[in-house]
Amino acid sequence: METLDTVPEEDFLRLDHQICFSLHAATRAFNGVYREALKDLGLTYPQYLVMLVLWEHGELPVKGIGERLRLDSGTLSPLLKRLEAAGYVERRRSPEDERSVTVRPTAEGAALKGRARGVPRRIAAATGLGLDEIRELRERLDALAARLDRVDPDDLAACASV
Hints:
Elements: H1 9-12, H2 19-38, H3 45-57, E1 60-61, H4 62-69, H5 73-85, E2 89-93, E3 101-105, H6 107-116, H7 119-127, H8 131-149, H9 153-159
Helix pairs in contact: 2-7
């Protein structure tokens, strides 16, 4: 069985051995499928993710949306502005804290949910995977993300000498 210690150093530098590239390629492929699936809704994939969060949780602070989507405010703010311009969300300053902005779906944004119902099934079908396989893959990717989130930069630097 191969281990980190037994794989030749030059093999680590092969593109086809990079998990990050496989994830990147899969992400690009998903984006293409989503682009087609979301065309009739007039949403981009990131906008769709924002709407999913709002449909699930209702009104949320911008910070809460960013935490759920793992997006910073610099990325999220333009998305929210475009969704607001399209009439799908409303942003409001919190009366308790002027620095806090909350976002909620408008009636038009809530109605969009009905039109979006078929998107997840179409995406799942496009993968060619069964539901159990999709769940397992998602769980493994979530676990991978959680492990990578816990990596200490100092530990990573120490791994360079391995």
